[in-house]
Amino acid sequence: EISQMGRRSPVWAAILVAAGVVAGCSSAGAPGSAEPTAGARATQASTGSASTCSGLPAGDSWIKLQVADQARDALVHVPSRQPPEHGFPAVVALHGYSAHATDFAAYSGLARKADVEGFVVVFPQALGDPTEWHLKGGWSPHPELRGSDVALVTGLLDKLGSSGCVDMGRVFLAGHSQGGGMADDLACQLGDRFAGLGLVSAEYLVTPCSQRRIPVVAFHALDDPVLPYDGGHISVAPSDFPPVLPAERIAGIWASNDGCTGGPSTTHLPGGVKMLSWRGCAAAVRFYRMP
Q: pTM score > 0.90 for this model?
């Protein structure tokens, strides 16, 4: 199962996405308008009172939508605190192939992170058995559903916007494995609706594009057993499934899309992790090469 990719570290990987992407939540401005500041925190308020959002209850609940004649849903987690003046920042988090929204919520740790940092997190549910996202460039037994996942996320964003809970200028997108590939696709098609993109061991089938420049943070392990770091055939996929593209090269393309003029430079981090960062960017790009 592609969802098993990166299973050594799914919890810390997702938390790093939350810390890296949501670090920009307290930065002022419209999506993509500024480079995230490390260690920034969403506005803190009283943690002892329930959320005053009119459209979403505190804690876990489900958003139900009808998309392309399909019943679709997403698990949403709202922290139990008063929202900031302009609403909570939010993260839309996409699970991997064959996984489920509830599984991703459990193993990613994003809901716990949301309670600490003060943001809403939404876990859309993919269709199928096994579940899959219908992303551009990917083979699917249901090609007729190829536009449905974009429509699902569009509907979820509209629902968040009407809830009175979320600052729609601070909505971030994150994805794991095949969900990372879907997030990459969504950043191309709906980039003007997101303030940043986080990718964990993503399945890259096409080169990224963007309607506008957007901050990106990505993670990929050199020894990934399913989605090879240097690209190539997915070991658990059918022989006619398209090869994935090299993870580090995709980061470089994002850097080009974001107008970066220099780099990448390499920072050595604990545990053998290397962070690649680009300079002179209109929107920041960071890539973490995991050992």
A: no
